[in-house]
Write a structure and sequence with these properties.
Length: 263
Amino acid sequence: LVGAACSADPHPDPDPAAWVVDDGAGGEGSDVARKTVEVLAVMPADATAFTQGLEVTSDGRLFESTGQYGSSDIREVDLATGEVLRLRPLDDSEFGEGLTVVGDRLIVLTWQENTAIVVDPDTFEDIERFTYEGQGWGLCYDGDRLVMSDGSAQLTFRDPDTFEVVGNVVVRLDDQPLVRINELECVDDRVYANVWQTEDIVIIDPESGVVETVIDASGLLSRAEAARVDVLNGIAAVPGTDEFLITGKNWPSMFRVRFVPVD
């Protein structure tokens, strides 16, 4: 694995019996498509950032949330250069997780604090806070509902104004539950998700929970770089294109990519 989970990563290991190894996904007898990554550009990234959430807005602004107790923050990053333009630390008692933008609000999850922090994207000042049960991992907005992951095989749908639960679905790969669903990105009525501790990104039909495509995002870092970093994590669609930004926790680079079929 590139950036296999290190001891600094506090996410608990879900029930191993529920973990689905996807090496055979998309093989003979499977309906799961396989894609890989075509790298279009590489830009520097802040290697101190324990990346948890990534989002590009329709007007080209890049927002990122980072984790770890005592060093979590919300930041705006220059889309072209990777320079950190603004940064708002979270409280030392808060472990930042996924984020998404809903209109003029930026919503950031926390891992075990049962709190979603809603801030103004222009000032990073608090607007309000929501509470929820369980852990917070990934978050995206499909234009109607929030989609949230908690490290299990379940995606939870929430009202973007109240954060109330409005539904859920179990994610399944080759008819088996797929746990460790992590950072999320909602694109064209599909959910893209990192699978924690792997180099895979999966594309999910949120209505059925079926994984339709597995993207192999391995090999982005050199062996030397991979030995110094944590896991692949962070997906952001670039509006108006078929391109994405992807990165990882403490990675020195962010990659502008296109997901293409495996030959």
